[in-house]
Amino acid sequence: METKKFKILDTQSRIDWVGKKVTGAHNGTIAIKEGELSLNNGKLIGGKFIVDTSSIKILNVPDPATNAQLSAHLASGDFFSTEKYPEASLEITSVSGNQVIGDLTIKGTTKPIDFNAIVNVSGDQLTATGKLLIDRTLYGIRFRSGNFFKDLGDNLIYNDFELDITLTAKAVQEIVLS
Questions:
Q1: Bridge partners, 20 (sequence order)
Q2: What is the pTM of this model?
Q3: Per-residue b/e over 83-103, b at no fewer than 16 CB within 10 Å?
Q4: How many domains does the chain have?
Q5: Which residues are in the Lipid/polyisoprenoid-binding YceI-like domain (predicted)?
Q6: What are phi and psi for residue 70, nearest 5 degrees?
Q7: Distance between CA atoms of 133 and 117, rounded to whole angstroms?
């Protein structure tokens, strides 16, 4: 039985996000701060990574003033409260085939989440991809949610947002158990 740990390379990994509203959508990126993944006999068995919530970027708003205003709003208490909660995290609790189950923590609230992931290993390099669909209201992000506010019309923001995660990691430790 062989267990390998892989350190996530933050500069080679990325998270793309999409948030949708009645009148359209916004998309961007958010940075991974650090993390690691564990494999046993080439299969994912666990791991954790931390996201820097203050690194959120908006890619589809080209006007600098509008982009800065929206970025500040996403950092505010209406959304991610980045000053109070500078990090979010995902800790893998179990894996069955391609299905990953973990604990997602946003704004100090932890909820279970499951998603499919594809993991490839080549030598001491690992790549992993997965797409998460997250209900923001479970983490106290209620701004313009139809679940909490009436008559929003075109101002409604959908509860679910998407994260498309691509991780690159390098083997750092190998443990051989007999």
A1: 25
A2: 0.92
A3: eebeebbbebeebeeeebebe
A4: 1
A5: 5-170
A6: -65, -40
A7: 13
Q: What is the CATH number of the domain that holds 72?
A: 2.40.128.110
Token readout for 150 is: 């009436």
Structure tokens at 93: 């609790």
Among all chains, which residue has been given the structure tokens 């009148």? 23
The type of residue at 24 is G
Task: Give residue 150's domain range.
Answer: 2-176
Q: Extract the tokens encoding 178.
A: 């007999």
Q: What is the pLDDT of residues 67-101, one digit of tens each?
A: 999 999 999 999 999 999 999 999 999 999 999 99
Q: What is residue 155's three-state secondary structure?
A: helix
Per DSSP (E only), the strands in the chain are 2-8, 14-21, 24-40, 43-58, 87-96, 99-106, 109-122, 125-135, 157-176
Phi, psi values for residue 30, rounded to 5°: -145, 140
Number of residues that this document lists for the chain = 178
- Beta-carbon count within 10 A of 65 CB: 8
Q: Name residues of the chain where pLDDT drops below 70.
A: 1, 145-147, 152, 173-178
